[in-house]
Specification:
The protein contains 5 helices and 8 strands, in the order αβββααβααββββ. The chain is α/β, with parallel strands linked by helices and 165 residues long. The strands form 2 sheets. A 6-stranded mixed sheet has the order 1-2-3-4-5-8, with helices on both faces. Strands 6-7 form a two-stranded antiparallel ribbon.
Length: 165
């Protein structure tokens, strides 16, 4: 069961690392954390050693898949599941005594780029700029159509709180 969880986390974290490598011309790779009860799920390590080491904590936001996109356009996103996921994870980690200032929170969801742009507007991002986390990112995996096997979504990464600022 633990290996399945690590494999799942590796997929999500890979989307994030590929994003960093692309936009920052970075040379990051992933290494899982195998310690029990660690606040770290994955380590993001610079192969050259020139970039900062990042420790990831991954958590799911419960969402309706974006298939019903038209219905989502009418929704008030001020109390979105991503907000609840951030608050829930912050509370849990603080209770465990984790140093949030050393953790990058990766929220796992399923929104497409268009919907993520609407949800993660400047007001949403402002809400978390003082968060104790080192950085906060929303990540959705690449998706393919079951019927046509075509890519219907590339991986989506949205910065909520940038680790590099």
């Amino acid at each position: 069961m633990e290996n399945i969880k690590k494999n799942n986390e590796f997929v999500w974290a890979s989307v994030f690392v590929n994003y960093l490598n692309k936009i920052r011309s970075a040379d990051y790779h992933l290494e899982p954390e195998y310690g029990e009860n660690s606040p770290v799920d994955m380590h993001v390590i610079s192969q050259s050693g020139e970039l900062p080491h990042l420790d990831l904590q991954l958590t799911h936001a419960i969402e309706v898949p974006f298939v019903a996109l038209e219905e989502h356009m009418k929704v008030d996103y001020s109390n979105h599941p991503t907000v609840q996921a951030i608050v829930r994870k912050q509370t849990k980690l603080e209770e465990q005594g984790a140093n949030l200032g050393k953790l990058v929170l990766v929220i796992q969801g399923y929104m497409n780029q268009e919907l993520a742009d609407k949800v993660f507007n400047s007001d949403f991002k402002k809400r978390f700029q003082d968060s104790p986390f080192m950085g906060i990112y929303y990540v959705a995996p690449p998706m393919m159509s079951d019927e046509t096997q075509e890519v219907i979504q590339n991986g989506v990464v949205m910065t909520i709180k940038d680790v590099f600022k």
